[in-house]
Amino acid sequence: MIDGNIYIEKLSVKLPVQKEYINIINDISIKFEQNLFIGIIGESGCGKSILGNAIIGNLPPYAKVEGRVKYKNYDILGDVKISKDFYIKEWGIIPQNPSESLISIKSITKQMQDILSVNNIQDKNNDYKNKLLKFFGLNNSTEVLEKYPFELSGGMQQRVLCAMGISQSPKWILADEPTKGLDEHTSKIVYDNLFKIKIEHKYSMLIISHDLSLVRQICDKVAVMYYGQIVEYGDNILNKPLHPYTQAFFGALPENGFQIIKEQNLITESQMGCSFAKYCRHCSNKCIQENPEMYNVGETKVRCFLYA
Question: 0.90 exceeded by the pTM?
Answer without folding.
Answer: yes
